Amino acid sequence: MQLTARLAILLLTLWGVAAGAQGQGGPLAESVPTTPILVIEFERVFSESAFGRRVNNEIEQAGRAIATENRRIEAELTEEERGLTDLRSTLAPDEFRKLADAFDEKVQRLRDEQDTKARALGARTDEARRRFLTVAQPVLEGLLREAGATLILERRTVLVAADSIDISDRAIARIDAQIGDGADATLDPTPDPMPEPLEMQPDPQE
Q1: Where does the UniProt annotation place the signal sequence (predicted)?
Q2: What are the DSSP E strand ranges found in the chain?
Q3: Mean of the per-residue pLDDT values of the chain
């Protein structure tokens, strides 16, 4: 299941905490109507936050490096194949077949290596998003308490929602202030497991 599908619905079920926060003032409570539900555009929060911009830039650079390497390998193999073709008329069939088979094996090996790099880059992207959600959860919990709400939904899964209950902009500003670009947060090779209060469900559109 793709990460975008698992992030389709973001649920923060903090019933006890939110109930205790009812009636408490705060910047968000003044601007968001009292409501049990808030919505957020997670993809926009990620991509527009300092954390997301850094990750996307790193992924883009790595992707360009792989593409450049692919072009170099393709040019080298094309040249090698041309040289092998030129040798065909000067070699015995069995000898040429051995060279051709070795070349085919080399092509397949390089293709597999580059495919592995591409898959690893995709996995790195997914891991960065999971890590972002983990480190951003305390911020989202804070916004939840300030609004006196009990639930945050991914806006894409909501048919209609008032703009006043959308906390995407507030989340971006708060996450940037508290986490920054999150460089240190993504260096942990064994990130913390997803917190129990956080539940992921498939995107109905998938």
Answers
A1: 1-21
A2: 9-12, 37-40, 151-154, 198-201
A3: 78
Cα maximum dimension of the chain: 89
**C-alpha neighbours within 13 Å on the C-beta side of residue 42:** 25
User: Which of 121, 27, 114 has the alpha carbon at shortest distance from 71?
Assistant: 114
d(CA 21, CA 2): 35
Domain ranges of the chain: 3-201
Closest CA to 43 of 142, 156, 149, 134: 156
> Regarding beta strands 37-40 and 9-12, do their DSSP bridges make them parallel or antiparallel, or are they unpaired?
unpaired
Q: Would the pLDDT of 34 be above 50?
A: yes
pLDDT of 187: 40
- Please say if the pLDDT value at position 155 is more than 50: yes
For residues 81 and 71, what is the distance between their CA atoms, to the nearest angstrom?
15
Cα–Cα distance for residue pair 111/61, rounded to 1 Å: 20
70 vs 157 pLDDT, higher one: 70
pLDDT of residue 149: 87
